[in-house]
């Protein structure tokens, strides 16, 4: 773990989760809450329609608590993932500004993705958590159900944060209280080797069949050890599977009354599942790498072993670093994941939030840090510097002019969220329900119908457990 200590005055711990991390079993299971689900069309309309009333200079976030008010205080701030140069620079500048304004100190701890769930679980069970943390939007219901997050409704009710569209807070708002502030949106698109496409005279795919053809041509020319389109079967596999299933009209589960009803055996989901497993059974990705997640795929991509994979712009800095500067600029590009019939597939509505930990020792100072970090000035900078989508409407609208970000803005307009239930993490990561089903089919141990029927029952049991 890299621990960064800034020289001036406050200490905060932050955690990042849009790039997914392997899950672990959580020791506490608390009665489930009801979270508002995030809609997709309304999301796009809400982002376009919301206006701006305040400037960063006039907002409460720009005046975060008078100078010496928190002198001598130290906050711990958790950031999740890798401290790549862009993320580190942003964090250094944010911390310096907060320390200047408040007289406090911020201790930053970077938590590698494979360790995130263990760190959160230990902090929730033992009370030794951060003051402030970065957190994935789909993780908020889980940790709120374990009383690990502090309500911060007052922060989103005024100032810059009041401009964030309410339909972006469906996973953060539970029983009328808000437990995290959206910090940056995450939709995904296909990252590809633009230099290979040019060399092999491959056009950017506009349909699924064209994507398959491009992947096979890459393999034919670059070698059998190269994945034309990398299969993701790891901790964040459902970002890819979900996109294919939703586009085909499928759902994971739907709330009917007070019970979750699994939909894995219905035609739409089965169609998307067949596309997903077909990446391996049709030979586009190797059967020897059924467990790889996005981080592992990214490393292979950096080493010329992958032609295309589903990810987001935050991978670019790490790819440049891992490839020792060889893969950057016009050698790389993105296009929206295509549907079978043509057009754009739906994307997972991911996002990183920022929250105050429930057992924070310096809760008031922590809230001031969240105000500053999630305000328009630092919130937009967090998103754009980190390869995410800004949650402030005007900033998001500008991305249509950016050739790198435009595919993500387009995907964001069709994005969907996973079932808004605190037990989804157990199904998605800890028990890996769909990943296991896919492996059984790919390895020939079960038919798709058998694997999905078993997975459907397991998913219902997990989501409906008290």
Task: Provide structural commentary.
This protein is of the alpha+beta class. It has 2 domains: 3-187 and 350-407, 3-Layer(aba) Sandwich (D-Maltodextrin-Binding Protein, domain 2), CATH 3.40.190; 189-347 and 419-463, Periplasmic binding protein-like II (D-Maltodextrin-Binding Protein, domain 2). The chain has helices at residues 41-49, 85-102, 113-126, 140-145, 153-156, 194-199, 208-222, 238-247, 267-281, 294-302, 315-322, 363-374, 376-385, 393-398, 406-412, 424-430, 433-442, 448-463; strands at 3-5, 74-80, 105-111, 132-136, 173-174, 177-178, 181-186, 189-193, 227-229, 253-256, 259-262, 306-311, 332-335, 350-356. A 6-stranded mixed sheet has the order 1-3-2-4-14-7. A hairpin with a 2-residue loop joins β5 and β6. The protein is globular, with a radius of gyration of 21 Å.
Give the structure's gist in a few sentences:
Helix content is 39%, strand content 14%.
CATH-level-2 architecture of the largest domain? 3-Layer(aba) Sandwich
Helix content: 25-40%
Amino- and carboxy-terminal Cα gap? 35 Å
**Number of helices, where a helix is a run of at least 4 consecutive DSSP H or I residues:** 18
For the CA atoms, what is the radius of gyration? 21 Å
CATH topology of the largest domain: D-Maltodextrin-Binding Protein, domain 2
Strand order of the largest sheet: 1-3-2-4-14-7
Topology:
Layout: E1 3-5, H1 41-49, E2 74-80, H2 85-102, E3 105-111, H3 113-126, E4 132-136, H4 140-145, H5 153-156, E5 173-174, E6 177-178, E7 181-186, E8 189-193, H6 194-199, H7 208-222, E9 227-229, H8 238-247, E10 253-256, E11 259-262, H9 267-281, H10 294-302, E12 306-311, H11 315-322, E13 332-335, E14 350-356, H12 363-374, H13 376-385, H14 393-398, H15 406-412, H16 424-430, H17 433-442, H18 448-463
Parallel strand pairs: 2-3, 2-4, 9-12
Antiparallel strand pairs: 1-3, 4-14, 5-6, 7-14, 8-12, 8-13, 10-11
